[in-house]
Amino acid sequence: MEAFQLLSRGGAQFSKDRFQPAFQSLKTSPSKQSTSSESHPDLPLALNFFKYAQVEQGKRKSVEKDFEVSSKKRRLDAGQEDHEEVSPPPMHRHRIKMKGLNVPSQADTFGEMKERYDIPPQLLSNLSKCGYSHPTSIQSSGMPVLFESRDLAAISPTGTGKTLSYLFPILSKLGYPLSASQDPTKKGVRALILAPTRELAHQIHNECLRLTQGRKWRIVLFSKATANSLANKAVRDKVDIIISTPLRLISSYQGGKLELNSIQHLVLDEADRLLDREFLPQVQEILGACSSSGIQKAVFSATLPAEIEKLALKILHNPIRVVIGMKDTPLPLISQSLTYVADDPSKLPSLLAYLLQPYNPPVLVFTSSQPRATSLAEELVLNGISNVDCLHAGLTRKEREDTVSRMRQGQSWVLVSTEVLARGMDFQGVREVINYDFPTSVQSYIHRIGRTGRAGREGKAVTFFTDEDGPYLKTIANVILQSGFTVPDWILKLPKPSKMKRKQMGKVKRPDVVNAVRRVGRRDAIKLRDMIKGSQCRQIRQTDLKTFAENP
Ligand SMILES: Nc1ncnc2c1ncn2[C@@H]1O[C@H](COP(=O)(O)OP(=O)(O)OP(=O)(O)O)[C@@H](O)[C@H]1O
């Protein structure tokens, strides 16, 4: 990690000679062909097409050229603040299936919702300020269910706006912040949103803040610091909404520093993850603590395997089940392909070859473990790939936050991560996802590749597979096929892996380092960093001298 931190904003040279045989063999590989067909000859200096992004003005011109597809362009004069957002293409409508007793009818426009339900004007105004003019399929069908105080199980593909589907009706039903209430008996948290990772909770919190701007809502992203201030009952009684991971919340609850009996709305985002073995005991305890009668519960995910769905339906009362598109199938907006890379040592040269061709940054690369993510990021940096970042659960909170923020600001071109970023994260500009290590399940595959192709945009997903991944290939190939892409016949003819075998998918034992040959020591890293710095300083000095000589 040391070397990576020292070098990640710089870079060294990829030795093509050292990787020559592998490099040559890759020249005809499918990954190369697909890259070049969508290539951008010049990589932009900075990428400011993210929500929440703030990028230096001078570098933006080259970006604009690359993203002419957007209908609303950023037009900036030097020094002028930019508040306009690049509008995404219109969201596609998908097939909607609704099941349950007395299913509320869909609302095709936000205007229709306004007529049917009592929505606070400020919330509607914020909705339009956020640029949401038409509801997506899950919003048209799911929002009325929540507006009509029904429980909901919603399954909708990645990037289709599930967050807004629950935030908008919940905020509307809460009506006004507790701080605006004259009634002293009205106190205590009224809505709770659970998410499996801190990053996702943070993102939901941001979205919630955007929708509530202009009023004094108290929306708390639960952390060690906020948990401490909420230990004071007078403070926590004024909180409207809490957004948290289960673990963080449960420790406060168990310590008697939080009551959940005033919760009226409870959402499990990424429900199948929250109801899996790792989180289930904590989630069950939280559900038990949310004892208010008439509480509304909703579960959301892009994937909900049958046995988890059964569990989810049990915690809901007389629910409506909504399925958008085909269950457990990624959107056809994400073009998907499989790339054969023989064995683990061949993956690094394959990825380097991929990244040395023109590619569409930012790219998200998924590995199977924290050490491998660190090792891969280091290797990319040492091989001259610019603007590489790394994110996994082993980093400090600050490091994780900084990395997400660099990604949002377009400063990261290649982000190497683990499963921690696979769910829910909305980096709108992600053009390509590379599964460096084979996913561990169909769900993992769908969520990982779902980091691209969001909000109606197109994306691309490449999955590396080795001989060891062969037995599980067919499972993923079937998903690709279902989404409307072609898969070589020989893969489809492979035997179907047994249930037992599927459980072992992606759990191949892999070394912690992606390049066993290299051992980067601290001293080497520092030497390299100083060399790069020295060369940069010399360049700057030469430019200064030249400018001075021309304009003394
Ligand atoms: N009605 C809308 N019109 C345009 N964009 C929208 C709309 N609703 C949501 N979006 C945008 O779509 C993107 C994806 O939304 P969101 O993150 O809620 O997707 P999701 O379905 O929860 O995805 P995932 O399954 O990966 O968590 C966000 O950038 C959001 O701002």
From TrEMBL:
<dbReference type="GO" id="GO:0005634">
    <property type="term" value="C:nucleus"/>
</dbReference>
<feature type="compositionally biased region" description="Basic and acidic residues">
    <location>
        <begin position="61"/>
        <end position="81"/>
    </location>
</feature>
<comment type="similarity">
    <text>Belongs to the DEAD box helicase family. DDX52/ROK1 subfamily.</text>
</comment>
<feature type="region of interest" description="Disordered">
    <location>
        <begin position="17"/>
        <end position="41"/>
    </location>
</feature>
<feature type="region of interest" description="Disordered">
    <location>
        <begin position="61"/>
        <end position="92"/>
    </location>
</feature>
<dbReference type="GO" id="GO:0005524">
    <property type="term" value="F:ATP binding"/>
</dbReference>
<dbReference type="InterPro" id="IPR011545">
    <property type="entry name" value="DEAD/DEAH_box_helicase_dom"/>
</dbReference>
<dbReference type="GO" id="GO:0030490">
    <property type="term" value="P:maturation of SSU-rRNA"/>
</dbReference>
<dbReference type="InterPro" id="IPR001650">
    <property type="entry name" value="Helicase_C-like"/>
</dbReference>
<feature type="compositionally biased region" description="Low complexity">
    <location>
        <begin position="24"/>
        <end position="38"/>
    </location>
</feature>
<keyword id="KW-0539">Nucleus</keyword>
<dbReference type="InterPro" id="IPR050079">
    <property type="entry name" value="DEAD_box_RNA_helicase"/>
</dbReference>
<keyword id="KW-0347">Helicase</keyword>
<keyword id="KW-0378">Hydrolase</keyword>
<keyword id="KW-0690">Ribosome biogenesis</keyword>
<keyword id="KW-0547">Nucleotide-binding</keyword>
<dbReference type="Pfam" id="PF00271">
    <property type="entry name" value="Helicase_C"/>
</dbReference>
<dbReference type="InterPro" id="IPR044764">
    <property type="entry name" value="DDX52/Rok1_DEADc"/>
</dbReference>
<dbReference type="InterPro" id="IPR014014">
    <property type="entry name" value="RNA_helicase_DEAD_Q_motif"/>
</dbReference>
<dbReference type="GO" id="GO:0003724">
    <property type="term" value="F:RNA helicase activity"/>
</dbReference>
<dbReference type="GO" id="GO:0003723">
    <property type="term" value="F:RNA binding"/>
</dbReference>
<keyword id="KW-0694">RNA-binding</keyword>
<feature type="short sequence motif" description="Q motif">
    <location>
        <begin position="112"/>
        <end position="140"/>
    </location>
</feature>
<dbReference type="GO" id="GO:0005829">
    <property type="term" value="C:cytosol"/>
</dbReference>
<dbReference type="InterPro" id="IPR000629">
    <property type="entry name" value="RNA-helicase_DEAD-box_CS"/>
</dbReference>
<feature type="domain" description="Helicase C-terminal">
    <location>
        <begin position="347"/>
        <end position="495"/>
    </location>
</feature>
<protein>
    <recommendedName>
        <fullName>RNA helicase</fullName>
        <ecNumber>3.6.4.13</ecNumber>
    </recommendedName>
</protein>
<dbReference type="Pfam" id="PF00270">
    <property type="entry name" value="DEAD"/>
</dbReference>
<dbReference type="InterPro" id="IPR027417">
    <property type="entry name" value="P-loop_NTPase"/>
</dbReference>
<keyword id="KW-0067">ATP-binding</keyword>
<feature type="domain" description="Helicase ATP-binding">
    <location>
        <begin position="143"/>
        <end position="322"/>
    </location>
</feature>
<feature type="domain" description="DEAD-box RNA helicase Q">
    <location>
        <begin position="112"/>
        <end position="140"/>
    </location>
</feature>
<dbReference type="InterPro" id="IPR014001">
    <property type="entry name" value="Helicase_ATP-bd"/>
</dbReference>
<dbReference type="GO" id="GO:0016787">
    <property type="term" value="F:hydrolase activity"/>
</dbReference>
